[in-house]
DNA sequence: TATTGTTATACTCTATAACTATA
DNA sequence: TATAGTTATAGAGTATAACAATA
């Protein structure tokens, strides 16, 4: 509670971003729970919606989650009749992912709720600030991609 | 890998903040591992350093972690001889936390490493942008505190 | 031999209930 | 009775190894 005391920590990104993310995740997951979704499952629906027919391994790459973990996540979405897993005719090892009609409908409804959540969470910020925030977050995220690259500069840990 | 495809998601804070945090946490924990620390344990050292004598329950409040989880974290720091747990003479249920000499030294060294990490992670950003980023993250975090409050406006989920 | 999806598993983080010793 | 610290435990989230089917 005593918020004036721990000043040192608050100078750093890591600490503040963690706490901000906790707040966002709490509200976002509460928002999505009304649709039986979480951040990850909603993200999966979003990517599938915009890339109908993609494979599980591609989706795992895009969402940066491990294939084994994606499997159980897709099981959940399939059980809820939100997605289809269709065998790829040209490569029978793979599945082509797509949204069901129900899935599309649920995703659209949830999308509106997520937009409302976004407005709620960024309430004190101007439109320019919101754009700037997301732009900066992406620049930070991009630092993590400098792993397999030529390295050399002052690049990020590859552990 | 195909980064041009999942555009819809990237409009939203929640998705971008999660990924940025992952990148930061990976580099930060790799940085702190050289000192036998993680983000949480380093944060604990920081708060104890600046608030010598505080109690475990106060520290748990400040760090927003549950008391039971703090106990094992402090066990770890005590075993490494980085902190002292001294019985409060006026309330023998409580412990007063402080850094050992070793703890202070380790914390200072780690602090320098964390500052280097911070520069690395915010490399493409100007000084004004870094300040603005942290300021916005704190505004978002503050939304989460509007739980026990009077509510009424468009406040955040209290689940 | 390599890849897609899968199973089983383990490790971390986080959250809750119940205990002890003090107050 | 209430509080500080503790114990045990359960649930998420995440990561790796190994397998079957297919390429």
Short descriptors:
2 strands, 58% helix, DNA-binding, two-stranded antiparallel sheet, mainly alpha, homodimer, 159 residues
Largest interface: A-B, 66 and 66 residues
> Could you state the oligomeric state of the chains shown?
homodimer
Structural class of chain A: mainly alpha
Round the Cα radius of gyration of chain A to an integer and report it: 19 Å
Number of helices of chain A: 6
Biggest sheet strand line-up of chain A: 1-2
Sheet with most strands of chain A? 2 strands, antiparallel
**In total, how many beta strands of chain A?**
2
Our measurement of the CA-to-CA distance between the termini of chain A, rounded to an integer number of angstroms, reads: 35 Å
Mean pLDDT across the residues of chain A is: 91
List segments of chain A where confidence is low: pLDDT < 50 over at least 5 consecutive residues. 148-154
Gross morphology of chain A = globular
Give the helices and strands of chain A as they follow along the chain. Answer: HHHHEEHH
Helicity level of chain A: 55-70%
Strand content of the residues of chain A, in percent? 5-15%
